[in-house]
């Protein structure tokens, strides 16, 4: 089998190097849910005279429709209501289909059968409301004055996670008026709106909104001036966070809402800020087997860091990675971002996800880059700055968040938007805490006795599930979280005989498929319980194997069977090759990282060669 492993490593290495670009970066497509494609069609139709790009996006979007009329987010999805609404609305808006076409009739039948527009995700309703196809008053209730509330209030604008804030700022401006885009081309979706009694908000959400309204009443000043000041503050918040490519924090979704919010504030359609934002989003395009796709955020930094690390792992690639390293060093952030609100004593030094991102670093990207940097004295200053920034992001509970420390106000979970419990806050997670520990132990050489390590271990132990697994926030799901936790704990010196380690390994081995691999459904993150996929994926098999190898440190039957299956999967490239194993928002946003079919198999195949029989 060793010969097959060497051949697979050579093949993976060659394919990775073939993706290196002129600027030194290594990256593949970040293929996410179809929301970005549908909304890009709306933007191009509304703000440009572009026809060719719209046609290409429509062609791919239409090709993804199931024979029964619906669109879905992953292979074992039985149809997603919001995705189907978004696809229908975009294809009708572009004139690609008419309401009389069979594809639309079947799709609308699915929409009505599953509750109509009323049952769509909040983000889908917002898009519909912008275009006059859903009533704003039923949708959103937070006043724009929240931007003025002090930290002592029940919630304040800066209690939101950074990811939520850049979406909330434009959404608050839009829902406040409420804003409706006037355009004769906008299709009528009223036949999918089912009249029903207005559903009452949950009691905790109503209580939260009442508290916010009371806090707003306590603001000192003339009401109308406070109102105008609130809108100006939200507008300024957006404008100050526009990246060099014109996008808002490098995200498609936040930029999409920002463009319409600017129009609601009086900006003309042809304003340079709007034109540049749209051009920035056009550059998010990538090619897939089904056609052109718009990425929510290009993974330039993430992929370059992880791929460089995998190539440098023993046995290392013969091709030098100096250009990739220089690319990463060039994009280390030097500007203060919103993260400084809770960690003002820390200098900038992290990295973001995309190369256009200059003010929004995150922990996972930062540790990924630090892993990839050579142990070279000339790079010490970069390394130290990055390490200090990562350490400063550790939450008081001992775990690590994605973007900012301390965004854990539990009241934010009751903001009346779908997915608020995931998007509104940025709590410690098992995957980020585990991966940070793995970096600190393997690369930064932190000992088990280090206080910050002990706090993180305590957090992980207290968040282990009853079945021995950990819930992963940014990957699917229990395999991802358990892999990160186990490899992190082992990297800092936790014994393989530790009870948490044994329970975690028992979980991994108990869910190994008969074919030797591992596969978990995207449904897991919605149901909050492990749900098998029914087949094995490359990335999840690799994560499970990495966890097993970190604990056993030798070849055992479960590892041997997994490696054999991994090699077969690399040759087959069946439907699981494109299955999304990255997570964004449960039930709404999933990611097929094209790079994951290279990074994780390459790393574990190399590690397997170093194991003793």
| Proportion of residues in helical segments | 40-55%
What is the residue-mean pLDDT, rounded to a whole number?
A: 95
Can you count the beta strands?
Answer: 5
Computed Rg = 24 Å
State the distance separating the first and last CA atoms: 12 Å
Silhouette:
globular
> What are the low-pLDDT stretches, counting only 5+ consecutive residues below 50?
none
Layout: helices, strands, pairs:
Blueprint: H1 2-17, E1 30-32, H2 35-47, H3 52-63, H4 81-93, H5 102-113, H6 122-130, H7 162-176, H8 203-217, H9 223-239, H10 252-264, H11 272-282, E2 285-288, E3 291-294, H12 300-312, H13 322-330, H14 363-372, H15 380-392, H16 420-423, H17 430-442, H18 451-462, H19 478-491, H20 499-510, H21 524-527, H22 538-552, H23 557-572, E4 582-585, E5 589-593, H24 596-610
Antiparallel strand pairs: 1-5, 2-3, 4-5
Helix pairs in contact: 1-24, 2-3, 2-4, 2-11, 4-5, 7-9, 7-10, 10-11, 12-13, 12-14, 12-24, 14-15, 14-17, 17-18, 17-19, 19-20, 19-22, 20-22, 22-23, 22-24
């Amino acid at each position: 089998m060793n010969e097959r492993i060497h051949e697979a490593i050579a093949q993976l290495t060659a394919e990775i190097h073939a993706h290196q670009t002129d600027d030194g970066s290594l990256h593949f497509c970040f293929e996410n849910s179809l929301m970005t494609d549908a909304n890009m069609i709306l933007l191009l139709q509304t703000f440009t005279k572009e026809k060719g790009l719209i046609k290409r996006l429509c062609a791919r979007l239409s090709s993804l429709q199931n024979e029964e009329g619906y669109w879905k987010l992953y292979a074992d999805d039985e149809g997603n209501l919001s995705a189907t609404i978004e696809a229908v609305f975009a294809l009708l808006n572009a004139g690609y289909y008419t309401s009389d076409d069979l594809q639309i009739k079947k799709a609308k039948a699915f929409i009505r059968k599953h509750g109509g527009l009323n049952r769509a995700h909040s983000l889908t309703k917002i898009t519909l409301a912008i275009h006059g196809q859903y009533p704003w008053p039923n949708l959103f209730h937070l006043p724009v004055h929240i931007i003025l509330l002090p930290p002592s209030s029940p919630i304040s604008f800066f209690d939101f996670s950074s990811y939520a804030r850049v979406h909330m700022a434009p959404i608050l401006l839009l829902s406040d008026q409420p804003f409706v885009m006037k355009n004769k081309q906008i299709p009528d979706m009223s036949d999918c709106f089912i009249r029903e009694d207005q559903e009452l908000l949950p009691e905790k959400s109503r209580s939260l909104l009442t508290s916010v309204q009371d806090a707003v009443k306590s603001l000192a000043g003339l009401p109308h001036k406070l109102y105008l000041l609130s809108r100006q503050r939200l507008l300024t918040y957006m404008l100050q966070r526009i990246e060099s490519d014109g996008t808002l924090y490098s995200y498609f979704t936040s930029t999409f809402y920002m463009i319409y919010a600017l129009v609601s504030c009086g900006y003309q359609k042809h304003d340079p800020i709007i034109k540049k934002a749209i051009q920035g989003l056009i550059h998010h395009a990538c090619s897939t087997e089904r056609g052109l796709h718009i990425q929510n955020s290009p993974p330039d930094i993430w992929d370059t860091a992880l791929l460089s690390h995998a190539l440098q792992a023993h046995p290392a690639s013969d091709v030098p990675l100096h250009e990739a390293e220089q690319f990463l060093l060039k994009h280390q952030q030097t500007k203060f971002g919103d993260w400084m609100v809770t960690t003002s004593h820390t200098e900038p030094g992290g990295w973001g996800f995309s190369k256009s991102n200059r003010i929004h670093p995150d922990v996972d990207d930062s540790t990924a880059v630090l892993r990839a940097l050579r142990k070279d004295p000339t790079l010490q200053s970069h390394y130290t700055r990055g390490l200090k920034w990562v350490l400063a992001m550790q939450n008081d509970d001992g775990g690590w968040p994605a973007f900012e420390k301390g965004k854990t106000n539990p009241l934010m979970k009751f903001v009346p938007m779908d997915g608020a419990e995931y998007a509104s806050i940025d709590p410690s997670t098992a995957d980020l805490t585990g991966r940070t520990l793995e970096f600190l132990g393997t690369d930064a050489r932190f000992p088990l006795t280090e206080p910050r390590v002990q706090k993180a271990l305590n957090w992980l132990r207290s968040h282990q599930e009853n079945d021995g697994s950990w819930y992963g926030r940014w990957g699917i799901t229990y395999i991802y979280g358990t892999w990160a936790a186990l490899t992190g704990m082992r990297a800092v010196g936790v014994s393989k005989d530790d009870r948490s380690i044994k329970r975690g390994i028992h979980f991994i081995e108990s869910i190994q498929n008969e074919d030797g691999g591992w596969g978990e459904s995207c449904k897991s993150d919605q149901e909050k319980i492990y749900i098998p996929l029914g087949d094995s994926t490359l990335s999840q098999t690799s994560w499970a194997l990495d966890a097993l190898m970190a604990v056993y440190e030798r070849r055992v039957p479960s590892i041997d069977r997994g490696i054999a299956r991994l090699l077969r999967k690399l040759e087959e490239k069946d439907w699981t090759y494109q299955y999304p194993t990255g997570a964004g928002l449960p039930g709404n946003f999933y990611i097929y990282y094209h790079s994951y079919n290279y990074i994780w198999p390459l790393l574990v195949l190399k590690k397997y060669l170093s194991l003793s029989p």
